[in-house]
Design goal:
There is one protein chain. This protein is an alpha/beta fold. The protein folds into four domains: 112 residues, Nucleic acid-binding proteins (OB fold (Dihydrolipoamide Acetyltransferase, E2P)), CATH 2.40.50.140; 158 residues, 3-Layer(aba) Sandwich (Rossmann fold), CATH 3.40.50.2300; 105 residues; 50 residues, no CATH class. Helices cover 45% and strands 19% of the residues. It has twelve helices and 13 strands. The strands form three sheets. The protein has a five-stranded mixed barrel. The chain has a five-stranded parallel sheet with strand order 7-6-8-9-10, sandwiched between helices. It has a three-stranded antiparallel sheet with strand order 11-12-13, with no helix packed on it. Helix 10 packs antiparallel against helix 11. The protein is elongated. The protein starts with 7 loop residues before the first helix and ends in a 10-residue tail after the last strand.
């Protein structure tokens, strides 16, 4: 490495006859540039950023300063593109580069080749900066979160086809509710281009849903991968992924890394799962728990029907009793009036009057009897209708009409031809008993 000249004889290469060596400005700047590049070819400089500016070409200019000095710095576009975080005023940086002179202005500066934040890793700083910006835009707002559907028929998965994450999801789903329809969109989950593939996969699922029939649409997405370092998980901290997840019309469960790992994808998603396995548990219900719940609901329904039947009978009995009492009271009033009339007739003793009162009494008695009979007919019709409705709600009544329920050997209800295979034993529940048999052939609606 060259040293600075110690006296002017070392600096000047020749003298004119009058003892002066005259340089042009460019020559002086060039000599100073050579000396600085020789003296400071590779240095580390620590300081606080001020006057940071990025121009249209991508070049970044800033100053590094301390308590008593200032050094101008420049980062060329090729280097700037590799820096994950934004250089801002007030940042404390450690920069590496070489000192040289910009000959046109005679300005010396540090040409930065690499830099790092002091006290905080560059990736972590970039993540914090991006998180604050996206949070300010509302990408993580709770009011934007959508409810995850219960028992979805189709589940989309965005992850690596060769990684452990998808295998874990399949294993957990099969153990909880076999036969779930899983659709994998294989992507890179780390390295160059991974973020673009992940974001594109989320958008492609949404495009598919916009064109598909309702019963063929994907109802929920699981986006994620297994654990790793911050560098391994960085694709899920990229802005395109966070925006794609936020914009998705399909609810998204983010399952990136392990429980301790958090990414911007987690924050933008509708639900965060600590691991891919946990995501499968959140979206796929346990079939046995569903069966037990159904049994409890069936028992509750039967008890409710019994209570309704008993209550209806009690109400009908009370109504009939009130009707009997009313009719008896009405007849009693009629009889009382008849007695009074007879007494008057006996006192007056005219035969025509007596006959008139007898006809009146007979008429009143007939009307009372007719009213009582009509009322009983109405109430009996109401009772028969209520009994018919209750009988129609009974599951056993459905079976009595020729229907049956078919169970597999494991006890599960068979709802589709695809649930059994030839050779399997089945059990058929009828209204008056059960039949045990064996499947000899399986044919679907399509003739398969």
């Amino acid at each position: 490495m060259k040293n600075f000249p110690e006296d002017e004889d070392d600096f000047f290469t020749g003298r004119p006859e009058d003892g002066r060596k005259i340089f042009t400005v460019s020559e002086v700047n060039r000599r100073i540039k050579e000396l600085m590049e020789a003296g400071f070819p590779d240095v580390w400089v620590e300081g606080e950023v001020s006057g940071a500016t990025r121009i249209a070409t991508g070049t970044v200019f800033f100053n590094l300063k301390d308590a008593s000095g200032l050094l101008k710095c420049v980062i060329f576009p090729q280097t700037a593109r590799g820096i994950k975080f934004e250089v801002k005023d007030g940042d404390k940086l450690i920069c590496r580069g070489g000192v040289s002179v910009y000959e046109r202005d005679g300005r010396y500066q540090l040409y930065v080749r690499s830099l790092e934040p002091k006290g905080l890793g560059s990736l972590q700083l970039a993540l914090e900066q991006l998180k604050k910006r996206l949070e300010k835009e509302g990408l993580f707002a709770s009011e934007h979160k959508r409810k995850i559907p219960y028992l979805p028929s189709r589940i989309g998965v965005v992850t690596s086809a060769s990684g452990a994450a998808f295998k874990d999801i399949l294993k957990v789903a099969a153990g909880r509710f076999s036969g779930m329809h899983m659709i994998l969109y294989p992507v890179k989950v780390q390295g160059e281009g991974a973020a673009g593939e992940i974001a594109s996969a989320v958008r492609e699922f949404n495009v598919y849903n916009a064109r598909a029939r309702k019963n063929e649409r994907v109802e929920v997405l699981i986006v994620g991968r297994g654990g790793g370092s911050i560098e391994d998980l960085w694709a899920f901290n990229e802005e395109p992924v966070a925006r794609a997840v936020y914009d998705s019309e399909i609810p998204v469960i983010s399952a990136v890394g392990h429980e301790r790992d958090w990414t911007l994808c987690d924050l933008a998603a509708d639900l965060r799962a600590p691991t891919p396995s946990a995501a499968a548990e959140l979206v796929v219900p346990d079939k046995e728990e569903l069966r037990q719940k159904l049994s409890r609901l069936t028992a509750s329904l039967q008890a409710g029907l019994q209570d309704l039947t008993r209550s209806s009978r009690e109400d009908l009995d009370a109504l009939a009793h009130r009707m009997q009492m009313s009719a008896a009271h009405y007849l009693e009033i009629g009889a009382s009036r008849m007695d009074s009339a007879v007494k008057k007739l006996r006192l007056l003793n005219p035969k025509a009057m007596l006959e008139q009162f007898r006809r009146r009494v007979s008429e009143l008695s007939g009307r009372a009897s007719t009213a009582w009979t009509h009322l009983l007919q109405i109430k009996n019709a109401v009772l028969r209708s209520a009994a018919a409705n209750l009988n129609g709600l009974s599951p056993l009544n459905v079976l009595s009409r020729g229907y049956s329920i078919t169970f597999s050997a494991a006890g599960g209800v068979i709802r589709s031809a695809g649930d059994v295979s030839a050779g399997e034993e089945i059990r058929i529940k009828l209204h008056d008993g059960e039949i045990t048999g064996q499947v000899t052939e399986v044919r679907g609606n399509g003739g398969d």
